[in-house]
C-alpha cells in the first residue's frame, strides 16, 4: 500500500512542534499521525540532524 503524503502545512506544523521541544511521539499523537511518519518526514527534511546539531551546541 502506498504511503500517505502529508501536506506542506502539516510538515511545517511538525517542524514547529519539534522546535518547541515536543517528542516525535507527542507530535504524532497531536497530529493523528504515526511515529514513523513524523520521524521519516522530519529526517527527510534534514530537520532531525539540524535539531541534533543545535542541541549539541548548547
Architecture overview:
There is one protein chain. With 58 residues, the chain is mostly helical. It has a single domain (8-57), classed as Orthogonal Bundle (Arc Repressor Mutant, subunit A). It is 71% helix and 0% strand. The chain is built from four helices and no strands. Helix 2 packs across helix 3. The longest helix has 12 residues, at 8-19. The mean pLDDT is 84.
Sequence of secondary-structure elements: HHHH
| Mean pLDDT across residues | 84
Tell me how many strands there are: 0
Uncertain spans, ≥5 residues at pLDDT below 50?
none
| Global outline | globular
Helix content: over 70%
Our count of helices gives 4
In the CATH scheme, what's the topology name? Arc Repressor Mutant, subunit A
Can you identify the CATH class?
Mainly Alpha
CATH architecture: Orthogonal Bundle
> How large, in whole angstroms, is the Cα Rg?
11 Å
- Counting structural domains, the number is 1
Task: Reconstruct the topology from this structure.
Layout (H helix, E strand, L loop, with lengths): L7 H12 L4 H8 L3 H10 L2 H11 L1
